[in-house]
């Protein structure tokens, strides 16, 4: 049994999707990020960085793993699935996983802060981060024009990138002009395990769309966290 410590964020949903795809038994522990539960001593003993997601694998002597990318690699290697075992195939998956960890996630996270959460609208910052998100989306679209998935077969690289790309509207970045990225987004969205994973836990509103009133309430909640200096964990 695996305990998953998480919240309804892109980084959190990466891991719940992978667990659903792999059919692994897990229990869900949803942390209240607005109450700074992720900074409590009991959780810092699991993840010293105080962020979600994290797992504890009781089948492996209560082994704790933090950082969403590291968790995905661990689960893939544990099961021998969602990542090739040959060196070149494994490298391709890890390259696109690192693309998400170092690019898509951080840039969309900053776009969210300035476009949605920051109390003042600083247009140069909004333009900067939305522009970089769009550039990274074009990289994905160009690659997907020649490939069904990011690294050969469906893998943890697709899961990691998709969990963020699906929220592009929340970052204020359209993909109507990126047909291959849109095709890939819709293709992965149709997978039953993915549909289950993004409900573990469910978001307070549909980030695939707009849900204007709920979105406003969520933005106000996170804005308060930004203004009071609380850490936003897990790619809110």
UniProtKB/TrEMBL annotation:
It comes from the Bacteria. GO terms for molecular function: transferase activity. The keyword Transferase applies. InterPro entries: Glutathione-S-Trfase_C-like, Glutathione-S-Trfase_C_sf, Glutathione_S-Trfase, Glutathione_S-Trfase_N, GST_C, Thioredoxin-like_sf. Residues 1-83 form the GST N-terminal domain. The keyword Transferase applies. Residues 86-218 form the GST C-terminal domain. Residues 227-236 have a biased composition (Polar residues). Keywords: Transferase. It comes from Thauera aminoaromatica. Belongs to the GST superfamily. This is Glutathione S-transferase domain protein.
